Structures are given as C-alpha cells and as structure tokens.
Amino acid sequence: MQDFSIITDAIHSFLLTYLPGWLTVTVECVLIGVGLLLVYALLALFYIYYERKVCAAFQCRLGPNRVGPWGLLQSFADMFKILIKELIQLNNIDKFLFALAPYLVIIASMLAFAVLPWGNGLQIIDFNIGIFFLIAVSSIGVLGILLAGWSSNNKFTLIGALRSGAQMVSYELSVGLSVITMVCLAGTMSVGGIVDEQSDLWFIFKGHVPAIIAFIIYMIAGTAECNRGPFDLPEAESELTAGYHTEYSGIHFGFFYLAEYLNLFIVSGVASLLFLGGWMPLHIPGWEAFNHIMDFIPSVIWFLGKAFLLSFVIIWFKWTFPRLRIDQMLLLEWKYLLPIGLFNLALMTCVIVFGWHF
Amino acid sequence: MEVTTKSMPYEAFKDNEYIEKLVEELKASGTNVIVGTLDKLINWGRSNSLWPLTFATSCCGIEFVSLGAARFDMARFGWEVARASPRQADFMMVAGTIVNRMVPVFRRLYDQLAEPKYVIACGSCAISGGPFRRSYHVAKGIEDIVPVDVFVPGCPPRPEAMIYGIMQLSRKIKVEKFFGGVNRQEKQRQFLAEHPVEGVED
Amino acid sequence: MSKLNDKIAKLFPQATEAANGIIEIEIADAQWHQAAQTLRDDEDIKMDYLVTIVGMDWTDALGCVYYLMSTKYNQIVAVTVKTSDREKPMLHSVADLWGVGCLYEREVYDFFGIIFIGNPDMRRLFLSIDWKGFPLRKDYDDDPALNPVSTENERQSDFTDTYIELPDGTVEKKEVEVFHPGDFVVNIGPQHPATHGVLRFRTAVDGETIKKIDVYMGYIHRGVEKLCESLTYPQTLHYMDRLDYFSAHNYHHGLCMVIEKAAGIEISRRAQVIRVMMDELSRIASHCLFIGTYCMDLGATTMLFYTLRVREQILDIMEKTCGARMTFNYDCIGGVMQDLAPDFVDDVKALLAVLPANIKEYNKIFTGNVIAKNRMEGVGVLSREDAISYAITGPSGRASDWACDMRKLRPYSIYSELDFEEVTATEGDSMARFKVRLREMEESAKILSQLVDNIPDGEYCVKVPKVLKLPVGHWFELVEGCRGAFGVYLESDGSTKPYRLKIAPPCLPLAGVVDHITRGSKIADLITIGGSLDYIVPDMDR
Predict the structure, then answer these.
(1) What are the residue boundaries of the structural domains of chain C, listed by start?
(2) ipTM exceeding the 0.85 mark
(3) Could you tell me if A229 lies within 8 Å of chain C, comparing CB atoms?
(4) Among A74, A85, A241, whose Cβ lies nearest the Cβ of B78?
(5) Which chain B residue has its CA at the smallest distance from A59's CA?
(6) Nearest residue, CB atoms, B78 vs list A64, A82, A250
(7) Which residues pair with C479 in a beta bridge?
(8) pLDDT per residue over A303-347, tens digit each?
C-alpha cells in the first residue's frame, strides 16, 4: 500500500532544513491552499461535464462533444465565459449580504474538503472530531442560501430561500443520525480512524442491516442536502425560475453553480468514507491474494472512484424522478426518515453491544 | 482570416464576406500582443459556451424544444444549459411573435440579461411581424426594440436552421474584441441611447 | 329531441331552425337574463354548456350571438341579443349562470366595447388597460399613432370595474378590489418556464398556499380575427396553423368544413380519410408533447426526450406529405393541398407498431412512480358540473366524466363510421387528465389502424372556383381539436372575404378555470394543474 505521507513528510523535512518552523507551517498552508483551490476548480469542472454526459446518456443524446476531444473542454469554455460575465448591480437590495452569500456557500463546501480522506496519508487535517467538524461546516451553506434569497429583494428568491431553509434544517437531522449510527460502529469520530477501522471490511458489510438502512437514509438525505432533484425545490426551475439565485449573474452565480456540484462530491465522498471505506481498497477477510491485488490500485483512485460512483447514483435520481412538493418533502423527513433513523441507531447500538456485526 | 467552428467547413457558411468585413474592421484598429492573446482565449470560451434564455412565445418555441431533444441535440455544442433567469443567460432566442403588450416585458428581459448579451431573431414574426404584420397588436420586427445579432428566417425555422443561426452567432463572437471594446458594444450603446426606456439607465 | 324543440317553440315563438340543426332565437336584451335562466334550468331544455359568445358588429347594431349546448339532449341553440346604442352599448350579463361567461364577456367587451351589466369583472382581457378603441368594430381606427408600440411598462391597477343595475333601471359603475393591499402577490409569468408560453398569473399567496389567481392574457394576442376580415377565404386558412400549433390539422379541418358547408362543396372520400388520419396523427403528436412537457414541469425532464422521439417520427410522416414540420397548411377548401407521400402507409404502420411499446414505457417510467402519484392524485379536482359550467372540453373535460368529444357528439367527416371509444374518467384530478390523454393516444392509434389500409382512391381535392364567394348567411361548426372543442363561426356578406370570423378556442376556458381549481393548493400545485390542463397560449389569445 502506497503511503502518501512519505511524500508529505519529505516536503516537510525539506522545508524545515531551510526555513524556521513557523515559516514552514505558513508555506505549507499556502501550498495546501493553492492545491485545494486547484483540485476544487478541476473537480467542479469535471463534475459539470460528468453530469452533462450522464444526463445525455439517460436521455438518448450525445451530450457535449464539439469543444475539445469528446467535449472535454466544454466546462472550461463555460468557466472562461462565466468569469467575464457582467456582475449586475441591483438597486434596492442589501448589497453587503448579497455579495457575501455566494462566498459563504463556497466556503462551506471548501472547508469540508479539509477532512475528506483523499488517500492513504493524503488528508489535510485529521483530528479527533473530524466527521463532526464536517457536518458543522457543511451546514454553513444553508446560511448563504438564506442570505442570497433574502437579500435579492425578489419574491421568487425569498420563497426559494425559505424552502431551502426548511429543507436543509430537516434533512440535516437524518444526515446526522446516520452519521452517528456509523460513528457508533467505528468507535471514533476521527476520519482517519474511521477509515482504519474498515481495513478488514467496509462498514456497509460489517454493520449489515443497520448499516444498509443508514446508507439508504444517508443517500436520500444527502441528495436533499445538496438541493438536487427530486429535492431541488429551492431552485425548482418550473416553479421559481431559478430559485434563490435568480438574481445572481456572472461569477457570483458561478459560485452557486460550482458549490452545487461540489456539495454533490462531498456528499458522495462522505458516504464513501462512512460506508465504503474511504480510500480503503476492497478487502475480504480470508482472501489474502485478492486483498493484495486490490492494494496495488492507488488509494486516491479508490476514493475518487467510490465518490464518482455514488455521485452517479445521485445524478441518476435527478434525471429519473419528478420533484416533490414542499409538504410531501417535509412529510418524508419527519414522518419516515427521522423515526427510521432513530430506530436504526438503537438497532446499531444493539448490534454493537451484542457483537452481532462481522 | 477564416473564422469557423469545428462543426462546419468555412466554405459551407453563407455569409463569409460579412465576417471578413468584421475582421478587417478589427485589424484596422490594431491591438497589442498580450491583450490579443487574452482576447483569443476569452473569445474561445465565450463562443463555445452560449447559454440560451428559456424564452418562447409561440410556434418557434416548440421547434426550440425539438432542438434540445435527442434528434438535434444542441447539447453537442454546449448550448443546452437553458437558464430560466435572464441574469445567467448569454443570448436570447426570440422565438415567436412579439405583440404590443409583450414589448415592455421583452425589453425588460433584454435589459436584465448580463453583458455580453446577444439576441437572435428567430422566425418571421420576430424579424418583421411575419404573417401578422398587418395586425393592430403586433410589433413589426424586434429590431426596433433591441439590437439583433442574427436573423433566422422561417415560419417556424427548422431546428437545423436554428443550429446554423447559433453557429453564426458563435462565429461573430469569435471575431469580437472583448477588451478592445470596438464594434458591438459601441453599437449597442448607441442603440440603447436611441431607444431609451424610462427609469432604466444603460 | 322534438320535445325540446316543442318546448323552445312554445317559450320563444320567434325561434327558427337553421340548416345544420341549430335552433336560432333572437331575444331582446331586457328579457335576456330571464330567458337564459330558463334555457339553462328548464328540465326539457337544459342548455348547460355555453359554447361561445360571438361578439358582432352589424354596423347598424352591436350584439352577441350566444351558442348554447345541452349536454343532455345534444342540441345547440344560438341566441342573438342586440343593442343599437353604439356610444355606450350595454347588455345584461350571464356570468352568474355559466362560469365561463365572465371570461367570454370580457373578451367581447375588449373587442367591441359592449358593457355587460352584472359582470363582476369588466376589465379588458387581451389589450392593455390604456388601449384606445375596440378593434373588432367595423369603424375601428387602426392608426398605429393611437396605440403605439411602447417599451414602457403598461399601467396596472389592482381594481376592476363592475356595472350594477339599480332598481330604477339606471346603471351604476362600481370599483371592486382584485387584491387587498396586504396580499403577498407573486407574479408568475409572462416570462416563466412553466406557463407554457406567455401567460401571466398574478398569484396571491399565503406562505406556499395560493389564495387567489388573477389571469392576464394578451401577451401573444395577434388579432387573428381582425386580420381574417381583410383576407379572402383561402388566405384565412393559414392562421389556423398558428393558433394551436399542435392541432394545426384539426383547426384547418374545422375552418375548411365551415367554408365548404357554406359554399356547398362536397369533398371526396379520399380527402375525408386523409384529413381524419392527419387529425389523429396530430392528436398523438400533441399528446406526446403534452406528456413530455408536463413531466418536465413536474421535474422529470427525461420523459420529454422519450416522448419527443415518437413526435419526431410523426413529424417525419407529416413532413413527407405536407412539406413542413409545423404550420403545415395542408387541408384546403375542397380537400387537401397535395396527395399523400408514396410511403405514407408504411410510415404510419411503422408508427403504429412502435406506439404501444412507447406508451407502456411512459407508464412504466412516470405513471407508476410514487412521487408522480403523490404530486398528481387529488390535485386540482374539477367536478363534472364545474367542467360544464366553465366549458372545459377536450381531455380535461373528459377527465371530469363529461363526455364532450365532438367526434361523438356531433360526428363530422367520417367519424361516425369509425370504431373508437370516448375516453372518460371520473376522478377529475390531474392524474385523470394525464391518463385520459395517454389512453386517447391508444384510441387515435385504433382509428389510424382502421383507416391505414382503407385509403380509397380518388381525387384528393375537388375543383373549387378560383375566386370563392360565399352566400350571405352565417354558419357555425365544432370540431375536436387536441385540447377540446374548437368552434368556428363564419358570417358572410356575399363577398370574397368573411364579414366576421370568430374562432372559439378550447384553451381560453382552460385558463379561466385555473383560479377556481387552484385555490387553497400549493404553488407547486399550480404548475401541476396548469400543466395538466395543457393550454396553448397563442390559442387562447389568438
């Protein structure tokens, strides 16, 4: 198993030989920041392309194929375009909050990147409440959406924002509950620890019934968390034109657009961390040769592959199901997902206490 | 200079003289190397990423739906990201008749589009009023209301014609200067100054 | 039948019977409201369906022709009410008797300036509040300087006028509030992805719940009726393509039929069969697009692409024969424009072969989906009485258990010989409207399969005089468009041009009922209901 900490440690000791300790940390922070931004932008562009191609395949179409080979450069063209679009100055709005909102949304998703287990030893920060931190920062996003909707001084955005508020607050409960369920199984909140716990078997197999229930609840609630169909009520195109970001143009809109796709990545990333072992290769107890072969595939590919696969499922949801109505959406959460989640937590506790898991 | 897109050979376009004239105009004003290169990059991006506004009033709108469907698939060119909010769209395909009552709404939609913005007059109604030209309640072409970049004739134009029209727009964008600020922007300002709307500053 | 005739003859001795079985009565304005009540409520007459109100300007008098139909006895009565006052013409309103009356009367007021006493909402319908003149009057001044094209926002008022007759006979004007100042009014449209065109709903909401909807039309009002008055009969035909562009063939069929009846032209059997086949093909294509756009409104975008696949196949068939993908201009006076393409029969057979599988697929993807069911079932319920009162015809009316198919009620062309079922449902909700359309596609396919092997030989178009003049008189015909009963009223003064051509579109009442059935539901339901009614805005605005 390759360990990326060898590379990071080498860089660290290399810097230490020339620089004092505090400067080393500063330089590393800057390096990581730049790297993160780069990964962030590339991932978002990839995701836009990915969704357009997947959706085209569902709809018997070809999807982008003229700009660059197989249309690969399509999202780059979109990025250049969106960067130079005019930022429209609106009258009668709360200018400060209006400008702040997209940054809040983008910061929320960027912070979440810090604790994702990208690969073996390739994690920006690993501390003992990693998963808790992730849930905490990802809920800042809703603040940005609420501000965007309110500060635009537009009735559609206001309705969109209020819908979004109701939706996020409700579904965060289910996300939290299924995360707690898995934390119980792992016995730690540290992201690295959770991954290590799955070195013999992924949690979805280890925790069997309660883990599978938690996985399903997490996927449903996660889809709602990132405002994607069938839960795309805050930006329901046929009802509210563009929902909370109706009034945003240019790169401000671009931020919302990127954040939507990155939230998709984060949701699938966390799902792969909690249920499918993060960067951990597929290990089956007893099959030593098989496990050894699996170890040859780099851990980054394992993580990204799992995340993309789960994203595919979420994209599949969007292009298949009709949208829910606001009352039905809240009904689903409060009357079904939440009780099932609570029951499932109790079940998982029993499973752990009595040692029924594998 | 041959201005073309990947999908069609240069000779297949019908109005090459017009584009060449635009290029001449551009060359005459000159530009420096850095700005020129940047311009090229940005124009590559802009011409390949045209997001339409979902705007349709009548028959042509249905052909626009067909254009998005599997058979004609405008997604191939990256035009499928139809935005419902004018703030996020790049061009407006005026598909259908614009009547007196719609004119203020239409003009407002145009004003709401974020720069750089383009208009395609699609179908004979949008170009001249078409079969309804003699009616008491139809605007005789949208050219008097907003500046138009490309005209696509037909009643309604076939989806192929619409693809051709958007390609022409894409070529036009390619020969524009973004930083230079020649051509289009000035003409547009002039147009807006000549056609003011009360309470709106351009 | 004769009982009804006798009763009417007894009540209104002045009644006459026109050639096509329509009973015509002229009633003075003072007695009109009373007479209307009798016509509607009398057990032996039961004229419960107001087909249309034709505003008329006979130059010496202004007035209306009310076309009433009895759903029980299947009989049409035309009532003429006149006023000779041109300065301030007034008639009594029947808005309290028929739900759709209010909208129809507003239309007449807009075009002719006839004020209806007792109508609760006497605003202009299509034209802006400051429009000068009444365009369909014969003395209308169409100088563009009077009503210039302006980019300035039109004036808007939260008040409407109503005219009330006082006991002493004088008429008083009163202002009525449409929205309270405290209402949270959201403007949905005219530029909105879900209004299917440029319709505008001013929606008062309480949170997500709809309190009231005020419908604004006219954003695509093109004045087709006025334009027709200056064109010869063959020239008027091409406007029919551009009203409801999905029912182009059906509308052509309707207008051609009226003109042929008036001119006494018999068309060949081959032309009849071709027309019916084209009508049914366009019905399938139209319903396909309905399913697609409706599912898209509900958020299931992918369905649109599956349904458009079938539609493209039908458009190919039509393109081979008619030469266009839309706006075919195919039916003409005396038959059809040109003969069928050589591979028409094979193409239709190929279509019929793939259609059942496709319908099955649609059901599988969408109809059985639990979210779709929750979104549609019990949403926007329209009772049978309301459907008749609001004149909701077509699939939407049939979903409320009102058998209103004109192909069955007043069989025209060769429909009486064909074996097909009239699809109805009892629920009256959005799901029923959706399902009725799906099943209608199957019925249309059934009609096509009966005809595809039996297209008789013969001429496709009979000889028609180059300059067509119709005798003096008036005619009214109803055909079944894809969205409901499409009526054409034609009045001729003996020249080559129509004196008045009134088009009674099915979509105008559809928009009129939206307020009635959306009250108390959610904003998302407005989209569901609007989508399921399937109105075409250029059709209602004309």
Answers:
(1) 1-141, 224-541
(2) no
(3) yes
(4) A74
(5) B70
(6) A64
(7) C486
(8) 888 889 999 998 888 888 888 888 888 888 889 989 999 999 998
